[in-house]
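Provenance and format

Records in this collection were gathered into a single text stream. Each protein contributes a sequence line and a token line. The two records reproduced below are adjacent in the stream.
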Amino acid sequence: MSPREIERRLAAARAVEEVQAGMLVGLGTGRTAALAVRCLSERIKQGLCITAVATSHATADLAHELSIPIVPLQNISSIDLTIDGADEIDGRFQAIKGGGGALLREKVVAAASTRVIAVVDSSKIVRELGGFPLPVEVVPFAAGFVRSRLAELGAHVILRSIDWKPFETDQGNYILDAAFEGISRPDKLAAAIATIPGVVEHGLFLNEIDTIVVANGEMIEVRHRANEET
């Protein structure tokens, strides 16, 4: 097991300690989120009673496999706590997400959540966003147009593919991975991308994350946005 894998496992286990009986829990997508789902399953086996909402078909399938009760998001208006990963996150709790292809559902679930925890290993903490390409979900019809507009904003853009075919999200959309040489003004970039017709959602999560659980070796740090702002 690699040092990063160990860190992810430790951070995921610590984040799941925040789940309390009776909560409706949002479950993220990706490698680290999957570890949190497995940790949550262990707590359920020990008697914890919760229900959950999944941010992707893949996460829902894993939850069903582990006997975690899942309810459809369309029947939900609010979520108590969401646990998810991040591809990058800075000291202002601004993150890039969407490496797992579920950024739209992740952003909806985060917006509906009273509290969002980002679980990361030490490599995901950055001074400035942009080392990880920014995922942008687009309707297939507009993929070429949006790609050109993202290039005008300074990005090198690649259509995400799998087995030589465009990757499709759970909503049937495409993802453009836009590599910028650093994102000094995430808020400005987010606003610019949001104005491009055909864009469904982007992977800049600027105000959604409340808590970061990061493992560095065997040490675990829990950071809260409120504490950072005071």
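Adjacent record:
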Amino acid sequence: MIDNKIYKYLIENKEIIQEAIKLDNSKWGTAFSIEELLQVGKEASGRTYTSDFKTNPRKTYIVLYNGDPTITLELSIIGARLGLNIIFMIYDDMLATNTLLVKLMQQTMERHGTKTFVKLYTNIEKEDIRKSTKLADKIIYIGDRFEYNNIRREYNIPVIYNGYGHVDVYTDVEVSGKYEEELKEIINYAFEHDIAVDFHSGNLEKELEYIDSDVAGDTCVIFSDDENKIKLLESKVNCKRIFINEDPFREYKFKFDIDELTTE
């Protein structure tokens, strides 16, 4: 299967990928590592798919995101396996790594005889996205809910939302000092991995109006010793993952529901 070939190519090109990562890390002050990509490739090589694209082959999806290379690799693999065209659109985030990954994917797909494509467009503007939507079936937007709602209004094609890369943190003022180290770790990890973190404090019910929306976010964290506040957040907030008084980044991975690709 093509998944195994992609994983093999990652290993064979490990040194050149590491050089690209090193270049990007020095430019952006990030702490990305080759191990994150190898993990994605390894997991993909043993994955099974239940979705059936035989009736609607070669659909094209635009991906708008922060340039996280694990997202590039994961969605490239899904596209190659399921016969989808993927167009990645970023500014210039992790440009060297993403450019190399897309080239490796293109080579692998050509050698495997896959009749689909993967492309990378950089330094994008709204007009670039608008032109590309004329060729695409859907947009996959990965990031914060506010920008998702803007994109949904801006472009006249369906948008799939994934909240990865955006985290809401509520801190009870009474315990902010108690969890100071955990908060520092969250800030440092978010900075090094280009993850947006919104911090909230004060009246929890009012803050929930900002945290929550009709669209499920990715991750919400609360630091509080008040059981009533914890129960309130757990019952009201619309997040896929909720953490109580702990660092959410210990097992933080990009996950994508491929069934959303077949939903009309």
